[in-house]
Amino acid sequence: MAETMYAAPGVGLAAPQVGIGERMIVVDVDAENPGKHLLKLINPVIAEREGTILWEEGCLSVVDYTAEVRRSAWILLKAWTVDQQEVAIEGDGLLAVALQHELDHLDGKLFIDRISALKRDSYKRRVRRMIREGIDLDTYKPESVEDEASVGTQRTRITTKDTKPSFTGRLRVLCGASCSFVVSGRHALPRRLLRHA
Questions:
Q1: pTM tops 0.85, yes or no
Q2: How many domains does the chain have?
Q3: Tell me, what's the pLDDT at 65?
Q4: Which of 2, 37, 108, 152 lies in disulfide reach of 30, CB 3.0 to 4.6 Å?
């Protein structure tokens, strides 16, 4: 599963995405050291969550489409490792989003199930058009963005239970050999961003 995730490229993959009927996920949000912080988790469950974050997500199971999705800003996830050790993982930012995104796959959901019906219908129309045009969705690769490996824009809004938003702004990310970013807003959050799983 990890090889498939890295080849995509992505930051997470759930077993059902590759035809395995188990509650397993792999996640690695460390772009600088692929494999060094790889999480291989079995039967993951979110034990606690706090705040909200709006993150632009994409998915290996959703062809050429991204959308902003509201998720918990911080989570405490409990799971088992492949070595049969019970673990508790605290995650925020990209890690929290990636873990929640992959758990959705285990429950039979895609990120497009969390967006408005209008946006979802727009995506469905685009897929139907691609099929009519004879595009093979299993082998389709979106056109790449110039020299940079990918360019994404992400809107982030983090809130906690008892506070106002601690960050609101736009983050422009260029992902290639290394990630750089430009932030406009009240505070800069030091977060790496990859093409989402």
A1: no
A2: 1
A3: 87
A4: 37
